Amino acid sequence: MLSEIAVGTDADVDRAVRAARRAFTRVWGPMRPADRGKYLFRIARLLQERAREFAVLETLDNGKPITESRDVDVPLAAAHFFYHAGWADKLDHVGLGAAPARTAWPARSSRGTSR
After folding, report:
1. Cα gap 46→90, rounded to integer Å
2. In a 10 Å sphere around its CB, with 0-12 CB exposed, 13-18 middle and 19+ buried, how is residue 31 labelled?
């Protein structure tokens, strides 16, 4: 047996969504971008450190060859987290911070008009 899976009700899903929103507004959202990047880097490193276990589980779960899980799926998952960890503290600098609609692009005005 690979795992045991609990069955959730609609109320369980609602509680999980509320908890995720609360975590975003209280923890993840206000967190410094550099700190977010550290969390994502840590996830990537954990994937690399435990790559063999993840590859075996992926193979058992999906029935695919172990070489595909070991050489493709798990390294790509880690690379995904490394990539996004690298961007975590850079998006603010290109105008995509907390309110991209207000900060991403300069306001346009027609020629010959003033503000």
Report:
1. 23
2. middle
What the block records as the tokens of 86 is 């690298």
Q: Using CA atoms, how far apart are residues 84 and 8, in angstroms rounded to an integer?
A: 31
- Residue 38: closest CA among 23, 46, 26: 46
Is residue 44 within 8 Å of 86, Cβ to Cβ?
A: no
pLDDT tens digit string along 37-76?
999 999 999 999 999 999 999 999 899 999 999 999 999 9
Residue 44 in contact with residue 85, Cβ under 8 Å? yes
**pLDDT tens figures, 73-88:** 999 999 999 999 999 8
pTM of the model: 0.69
Q: Which residues of the chain form beta strands (DSSP E)?
A: none
Sign of CA dihedral 68, 2, 82, 22: positive
